[in-house]
Amino acid sequence: MEEHQWEELYRTLLPRVFHYFSYRVGSIPQAEDLTATTFEKAWRSRWRFRGDEDGFARWVFGIARHVAADYFRKDGHVTLALEKARLVDEHPSPEEYAQTKDDFERLTILLQKLSVRERELIALKYGAGMTNRAIAEVTGLSESNVGTILHRSVNRLRLLWKEKE
User: Fold this and answer.
1) Cα–Cα distance, 118 to 98 (Å, whole number)
2) pTM for the full model?
């Protein structure tokens, strides 16, 4: 891979990988560290990659998933509050901020009721902005299985949300 290609793909993927880790760990500084670790590993092993740009994204997210797994295995880390992962450039009113903070705290609690696999797929879909097809390629699941799991997970979250109202 040429250096100019790497730089372009890096700029494109950096926010997506960072958001994936933000969803997974809930800590901005930790998401930054894990993102850096992912790209460092990708850079060191870039000679192994022999595909196209779409394949590169799948390859990098495969590395990111391994980095996340290592992080959670080490010292028993747990997922933190999602409100810390929310990246917004707007300036909400105090009321909007309080409501959003409450909603994210509530969502964090509800997400813990899902399985690790369900939370992983939600992070890839909504954190990294990946398509079901890309998620399937990264996880080894079928595209229809990814869609089914996501649909059921989101529906379960909606039901849990309504129960708490």
Assistant:
1) 27
2) 0.66
